[in-house]
Amino acid sequence: MNTDASETSGSFIQNFLTRFMGMGNDVGNPKLSTHVAPFLHYAFTRSDLPVVLPRYQALIDEFAMYVIARERSEVGATRGLIVSFAGPSYCVSGDLAPALLNRNDPVDKAVIDFFSEDTTFILRAGKNREKRRRLRESLGLMQATMSARPRRSWSVAKPLGRLIAQFDAELAAGGEASSLHVLQEIQARGGMTPTNLAHLQIKRLDRLGLSAQLLEMEDLPNVLHQNPPIPVGEAVLNAVRSAVLEESLSVGDLEAAYERLRTLDLPLPVKVDAHRLGPQALTVLLTAALGRGDDDYLGVLLHKLDEQRQAELIPATLLDAARKRAPSAAEATDEPHPAESSAVEASLRGSINSWMGLFMAVAKEGTDPSAVLTDSIWREWPPPADSDNEVAELLTDLTDQEWDRCWRLTGPFIEADEYTHVAPRSTREFINYALSGNRLAVGDLNAVYALTESYLRSSPSANEYRQLLDELRDTSPQWVSIDNSRIVLDFVDRLILVPCPDESARLNLAIALLEPLSRRSTRLDPATLAFSKQLAKELGVPLQWAPTESTSPSTAEVQINGKGEVILLYSLDNQVLMRVAETLEKLAPGIKVLMSSDKISTTSLKQKAQHATRVVLATRCATHAATGAITARTRAKIAFADGSGSASLLRAAVNVLAD
Amino acid sequence: MTPLERTVRTGKNLGLRAENIVGTALIGELLDPGKTLWVVSGWISDVKVIDNSQGAFDSILGDDPPNVCRLSHMLALVAATGTKVCVATRPNPHNTTFLDHISEAIRNENRLRIIRDPNMHEKTLCGNGWIMTGSMNFTKSGMGNNEESVTYRTGDPSVAQAHIDFRARWKETE
């Protein structure tokens, strides 16, 4: 890291500042010079700090603070700083991901020319002058604090395996924004091939149901040319089902469906091992086989559908046409088998065929679980709930090193639960390790919440309930903060939603979680503050909260009420849906709230998606069949919750309503 | 597509020259163009790639077919089909002539991207479903007298991987 003042005050930064402060930026006004000067000083003298600069456009009265990470590897750390000092308390947008810079804008172009396209955060505080002042001052404080710290490297790279595990866990736990942050961190860190990075992107877009976005990926044809793992191919086929075939198949027009498939300029994997594919992908394969008259493969597909009892999930017209064409499906068993990636992977697949076997191999033999995870073979196994006692006994005796490897399996373990197959003992072991092994960083908390939710769903005894809550309370100083208020409130709300066999343990944990928020409640946004107060009241926690800023309606209320907004809330957790619907209706009585927890694409889900003017999705354990149907059907603005609890869904809902 | 691979060793002693291989590959690209054509080489000259002195390629070399077709001319013809030509090379004076020629030949800035990377050492030409890679720079010596090894592959996943890798490697520059 270079901290040589002579270099930082050199022509590079001078030229950059001349451009940044020039055309398109009106902060050159002498009245503003005292506010601007400290930021210029840091930009000139400290190359170890992010460049932080104000921008004001007088014509449209728009104020923004640009925070530029000097290296891509520093983006993650810079985001952390922004969140700690400014967002979301003082930012209405821009605090979560680097901005998409506009090459035609002179100020943005200056940043692109001197730094990079994807390392700049553009923070906005809205039109309120007081909020703008607070944003500017908080970033000034950030620079002052950072410049006073000991000089040391602050971009310590996390091991790649840990980041991938975190990504899987975030996706499984429904952390939409968090999974994007981890993906960006992996990208910035390096060490992963661009093809594998593309696989992660595809996996994420599939989970969120963003079919059109997935099919528009520039690298997609090249990814498909490389014989990707089955889940990647399936994700692409799922997207084709939602974004390309939905319209034709919904009216039974098979010719049009095939024509759309034929003219799609993508090397789709239309003749693959259908054994592990879901009904969405199988629908695409059936359409393709029918269109090209491949009777043998049609027979194979129909046989698989009957064998896996998925036939009722295929559009009736398509299924009938396929059965007429290939009536002898019952005997068809010969299907193409994809080439194994390697002998090692093939042998690994053969030797590991249960959760117990997987944990044993990863923990005791140090087996790299990548092959199993990449191909999602675990989806074919009975859920961990079926072997809960054996798995839990194995997990109880693991050393820290063995746990470190097994933590990589958190994401699939959470997903295998599917809100129905809880494995309480094994889940408790995961929580034990998270709490004792300090897996309490921002990137881990969504997973810990999902595990806690699963465990509490299993109706633990009073003693088990008390023990868990006490352990959470003991670790709470490590993770409860204003920055994490969303996930903290998810935990608090869960205490209300589940049966309570020990009132005092619940109260103690509630106080430990809510008290730090109440102390700094001036930093909470109005909706979060209102929800915190509501939770405290319901739990009987007597805390002092900041008064509401004014008696006038909140931004959301002003923008929503009377406009006939219809918001669709989607989550597989019915309790969360009810809770958020109730809170939203109180917050803004003028809106209509629709809810859905359908696991697959149903008529009801599609109708709700069509009627909604805003959609909010919590994607924990959700399938593309449902999320894809929503995103394909709706013209509404869509938001994703960054977690699976009530506070996460509520925050996303308020943001999308106020947008 | 069935993957095919062939390795050719060129050089004065073997009597094999690389320019014919490059020229043939680029004719293939011209007839079946892709979205992007990558020319990656630390040193590039505007070498002759097709001998058209007999007029054998008149029908595909444009309205005014040259006797000798140089690399920049061939790349411009490919770009005219809608392909984006991406040239990655070192910021070295040796490359200036070629870069001037190609900038002159491809005026549409959406069809030409020039990347100057002082750290690059790879030598690859990668088009629609094919890749040519090896030890040879696209210079007079590299394609003429030097003893080099060049591997040409079609229909292989390595082609798609090269496209993704190059795009990721030079994503944000220029």
TrEMBL record, chain A:
InterPro entries given in the database record: DpdD-like
Span list, region Disordered: 325-344
Protein name stated in the entry: Uncharacterized protein
Origin species: Sphaerisporangium krabiense
Origin organism lineage: Bacteria, Bacillati, Actinomycetota, Actinomycetes, Streptosporangiales
From TrEMBL, chain B:
Alphabetical list of InterPro entries matching this protein: PLD-like_dom
Signal sequence segment: none
Limits of the Phospholipase D-like domain: 82-170
UniProt-listed Pfam families: PLDc_2
Record's protein name: Phospholipase D-like domain-containing protein
Organism: Sphaerisporangium krabiense
Biological classification of the source: Bacteria, Bacillati, Actinomycetota, Actinomycetes, Streptosporangiales
